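quick one
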Amino acid sequence: MSPAHIQINDAVDRVVTITISRPEKLNALNAQTLGEIEAAFEGVATDSRVGAVILTGAGPKSFVAGADIEGLAKASPIGAREIALHGQRVFRRIETCGKPVIAAVNGFALGGGLELAMACTVRVASTNAKLGQPEVKLGIVPGFGGTQRLPLLVGRGRAMEMLLTGEPITATEAYRIGLVNHVVEPEQLLDKAKEIALKMLANAPVALALTMEAVDVGLACGLEQGLQFEATAFGLSAATEDKREGTQAFLEKRKAKFSGK
Ligand code: COA
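structure w/ coenzyme A:
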C-alpha cells in the first residue's frame, strides 16, 4: 500500500526525494506520518540503488510545522512518552541509514520539524524558512531530540536561547549560527540539495557510510572511543575495492570509478 502522508520519488542519479505531504496541516507529524518515514528510511538503508536522500516538505510554506499538536493535546503522560520515543527512533533511523540525507527546508521547520532537519546529515534552507523549537510555548519539552542535537549543532548558549525563548529564527540567522549549511532562494532549493548530494555520491559509498558512523560514534562516546572507531573504520575502508580504485586512480591521474565494494 502506498503511503498516505509521504511521497517517495524514484531515484534519479541514485538520489531519492522523500516529501512529507500533509499540506493542510503544514506537514505536521502524526503517528502515521512518522511510521511512513520510518518505513521509507528502512528502504533507503537496504536499497543499493539509493545513494543519498533529499528530504523536504510539500507546498511552498512548510517543511514540517512540528509534531501533531492535536495528538499531543490528547496524550496521557505515558502516551506522550511513547510519542517521543517513536519520533526519536524514527529520527535515529534517518541518522543511521548509512547514506547522506539532505534536508531541503522549504519553510517552517518548527519543533519536530527542526528536530527532523537536525537528524539529517546536512541542511539547506530556502530564504523563507523559519526554524525554531517552540515547545515551551505549549508547556512541553522538545521530545524528538531537540535538546540533544541543537546544542551539538549550534553550541550550548545559542541552543539554550532558542529552546527557552521558543522564538523561531530566520534562515539567514540559522546560516550564521551553523544550523543550516546553505540558504538559497526557494526555487533553487531542490537543485542545491541535489548538487550537494551528487558531490557526496561522487565519492566511495563505504567510505561515506563509515565516515558518518565515525562522526556519530565520536559525538556519542567522546574523543578516545571516537578515535579508536576511526582507526578501525580506516582499516576497514582499506579493505575495499574502492580504496584500491581511489588510490590507483589518483596515481594514474584519472577520475576514480567507485563500485561500492
Ligand atoms: N500540529 C497540528 N496541526 C498543525 C500544526 C501542528 N504542529 N501546525 C500547523 N497545524 C495546522 C493548523 O492547526 C491549521 O489547521 P486548520 O486549518 O485545520 O485549523 C493548519 O495547519 C494551518 O496552520 P495555520 O496555523 O492556520 O497557519 P499559519 O500560517 O497561520 O501559521 C504556524 C503557521 C506554523 C506559525 C502555526 O501553524 C504554528 O504555530 N504551528 C505550530 C508550530 C508548533 O508549535 N510546533 C511544535 C509542535 S510540538
